[in-house]
Amino acid sequence: MPIYPSTVFITGANRGIGLEFVKQLLGSKNPPNKLIASCRKPAEAKELNELSSVNPAVHVLQFDVTDFDAIPKIVSDTERILDGVGLNLLINNAGIIHRSPLGGVTLDEMRTEADINCIAPVLIAQAFVPLLRKAAEASDVPNMSCDKAAIVNITSKVGSIADNRGGGRYAYRASKAGLNAITKSLSIDLAKENILAVVLHPGWVQTSMGGPDALIDTVTCVQGLLNVMATLDAQKSGTFWDYKGEQIPW
Ligand SMILES: NC(=O)c1ccc[n+]([C@@H]2O[C@H](COP(=O)([O-])OP(=O)(O)OC[C@H]3O[C@@H](n4cnc5c(N)ncnc54)[C@H](OP(=O)(O)O)[C@@H]3O)[C@@H](O)[C@H]2O)c1
Question: Which regions span the lipid bilayer (predicted)?
Answer without folding.
Answer: none
